[in-house]
UniProtKB/TrEMBL annotation:
Keyword Signal among record annotations: no
Family statement drawn from the similarity comment of this UniProt entry: Belongs to the kynureninase family.
Lineage: superkingdom: Bacteria
Modified residues (N6-(pyridoxal phosphate)lysine): K234
Species of provenance: Sutcliffiella horikoshii
Its biological purpose: Catalyzes the cleavage of L-kynurenine (L-Kyn) and L-3-hydroxykynurenine (L-3OHKyn) into anthranilic acid (AA) and 3-hydroxyanthranilic acid (3-OHAA), respectively.
Name recorded for this polypeptide: Kynureninase
Lineage of the species this protein comes from: Bacteria, Bacillati, Bacillota, Bacilli, Bacillales
EC annotation from Swiss-Prot or TrEMBL: 3.7.1.3
Keywords annotated in UniProt: Hydrolase, Pyridine nucleotide biosynthesis, Pyridoxal phosphate
Cofactor (UniProt): pyridoxal 5'-phosphate
Length: 423
């Protein structure tokens, strides 16, 4: 089947989510394909940030308990609004910390090496920050990370075979840390299957949801996921450095967090100022210090859009858009040396398309000059992420046309093939 301009126009007209595009600030004449790295600002996120600023202006210290969104309960409120995105009970999700900080917190809580069971299993394509956190908890507990951290190998350099992960799990493994979606190739794991297999071997499982939350529905509670953590600045559009989130299954609410601080207190007790810690009986216990209100504020407006739409429609459009993108690439870009490294089947494809090319770094520079914002990942990967809330089918079509022109004209040759400081 050939994709025609008529088809592109029809998909845009029939798009049930098209009105949401107008809610975002999209630079005139620019095509944004980098929402999996930093989502764009929406008007609702902007207005929730301004409204929280106003509450400081109008209430001073009383903003903790007065105003439209009392700050003292804001993390809990955002947790409750986030819960449907991950299929959790509202007490199981808290908006706090950062992805990496939350992983440190969760490892400090759940990594409890006993006798032979001391190892942590991850994968060799894992995001570096997660690996650094795992290495550091192993060191803190007096182990050698080179011996205790097992990284499951990739057979093709892009994806990880689920059976290879499951085969590494045994009575020597304490925790399995995996991303729900691999950040480079966009492979989506079968979270339910792997969690179940790990539990059968007595292994606790923690999932990094950075590349799936806001793009893909989850059922963390039902799947009995032990814990999860993610950022809110990618598909959730909560702004650079926006506060992250964590999930702890209610079956673990009897645990005391490894890293404690007064904002993890039972809210009724916190201001008793006692030196004996009385933790909240929910995921709220995993908070540490005073919440970063202004770095959480945009998430409120953003989550209201997700609440309105529901994850199913978002996932359906996202899958269709990545499918169309893949077909366009095949149709328009064969013979130029691109290799698609994302999984092709819907069940294991995340929210982006991943293209390998030896000239990837400078092709990305050309794309930027010509109005497309892509994402480069070392050594040779171009990631293109259509985002259901604001990408049009025309964006996809034009991106591929621009890529074809770049290849035809060898436009990229004017740049060096090196990454930028931030890439
Ligand atoms: C973006 C991302 C992170 C980032 O961690 P921060 O602590 O938010 O900087 C971590 N893990 C994965 C898989 C990511 O995609």
């Amino acid at each position: 089947m050939t994709i025609t301009v008529d088809m592109i126009n029809r998909w845009d007209e029939e798009d049930g989510l098209k009105k949401y595009r107008d809610e975002f600030y999209i630079k005139e004449g620019s095509i944004y394909m980098d929402g999996n790295s930093l989502g764009l600002l929406s008007k609702r996120a902007e207005s929730s940030l301004l409204s929280l600023l106003d509450s400081w202006k109008n209430h001073g210290i009383d903003g903790w308990t007065s105003g439209e969104e009392p700050w003292f309960y804001f993390a809990e409120k955002l947790g409750e609004l986030s819960a449907p995105l991950v299929g959790a009970k509202k007490e199981e999700v808290m908006v706090t910390g950062s992805t990496t900080g939350n992983l440190h917190q969760l490892l400090a809580t759940f990594y409890d090496p006993k006798e032979k069971r001391t190892k942590i299993v991850a994968d060799e394509l894992n995001f570096p920050s997660d690996i650094y956190a795992v290495q550091s908890i192993l060191k803190l507990k007096g182990f050698n990370p080179d011996e205790q951290l097992i990284r499951v190998k990739s057979r093709d350099g892009h994806t990880i075979c689920e059976e290879d992960i499951i085969n590494e799990l045994n009575e020597e493994v304490a925790i399995l840390i995996l991303p729900t979606v691999l950040y480079r190739s966009g492979q989506l794991f079968d979270i339910e299957k792997i969690t179940k297999a790990a539990h059968e071997k007595g292994v606790i499982v923690g999932w990094d949801g950075c590349h799936s939350v806001g793009a893909i529905p989850h059922r963390f509670h039902q799947w009995e996921v032990d814990f999860a953590y993610w950022c809110n600045y990618k598909y959730l559009n909560a702004g650079p450095g926006g506060v992250g989130a964590l999930f702890v299954h209610e079956k673990h609410f009897d645990k005391t967090p490894g890293l404690t601080g007064w904002f993890g207190s039972d809210k009724q007790k916190q201001f008793d100022m006692e030196h004996t810690f009385t933790p909240a009986t929910t995921s709220g216990a995993y908070q540490i210090g005073t919440p970063h209100i202004f770095s959480m504020a945009p998430l409120l407006g953003s989550l209201k859009m997700f609440e309105e739409i529901g994850m199913k429609k978002i996932r359906d459009k996202s899958l269709h858009q990545t499918r169309v993108m893949m077909e366009l690439i095949e149709q328009e870009l064969s013979g130029y040396g691109f290799k698609m490294t994302n999984p092709l089947e819907d069940v294991c494809r995340g929210g982006h398309v991943s293209l390998e090319h030896p000239e990837a770094a400078r092709i990305c520079k050309s794309l930027k000059e010509l109005g497309v914002v892509p994402d480069f990942r070392k050594p040779n990967i171009i990631r293109l992420a259509p985002v259901a809330l604001y990408s049009t089918y025309k964006d996809l079509y034009e991106t591929v046309q621009i890529l074809r022109n770049i290849m035809n004209e060898k436009h990229y040759e004017k740049y060096s093939n090196e990454r930028e400081v931030v890439a």
